Amino acid sequence: MRLLIFGYGFSGRALARRMAGRGWEVAATHRSPEGAARIAADGATPIDLADRDALTDALARTHALLATAPPGPQGCPALNTLVGPLARAGAFPDWTGYLSTTGVYGDRGGGWVTETSRLSAQSVEGARRVGAERDWLEVGRGLGLTVTVFRLPGIYGPGRSAFERLRDGRARRISAPGQVFSRIHVDDLAAGLEASIARPRAGGIYNLCDDEPAPNSEVIAYAARLLGVEPPPEVALADANLSAAAMRFYGESKRVSNARGKAELGWRPAYPTYREGLASILAAGA
Q: What is the set of domains in the chain, with CATH numbers?
């Protein structure tokens, strides 16, 4: 079995490691020699996006296709790049996954959202994700592809967690009363994708997140306790001098339900809250 990843970043690498451990062959696209070297160092096959013949050949032999790259002004780069080669190859992967964001729901004042909740993106980036989801699902119907969309919150894991921010002095505890958000450990994300690959569903949409939405200040304080250091003092949101992007983040508060993924995929997060996830990262020495 063969997995092809468009966008070999934090999430893509996690799925690549997981599926390679199951005996799958893994290939990933790149745009530079540095990208090719990183993919090859992980034991995967680099596919140059500039080589359309190589891309078409790779797609013809692909059983599972994952697109992780964020959309830009022209839409989803993976979709724009892959539709032609998919058609030329006559390729019908058993599963095509697109990674979106829970930002498509916008602000819900701390209320719960499910996959059937109204979409109300409040940023350009969120609106682009809404468009990319729509485009992937429409192309999937048009080409007969089994496309599944995954809406993700903040992703953390080894090398990308509150620990790094605390160690280098970048961590901040922003006090934003009532503001909570969901998150997911990258290994739980990969496990959810693997579960979906085993149960392909055309047009499926899943929220993959942990079980306990929480304020960012709470997560930072807990990580500091695990490190045995004093947490940074809380700063009121109005006094934090945040960037426009950060202010948009703190302007949204919602609790994301993962019930559908559990019910339909048989998936359960190994790290149901940030506490288990952070403890595991620290225990692994990351």
A: 2-156+183-210+255-271 (3.40.50.720)
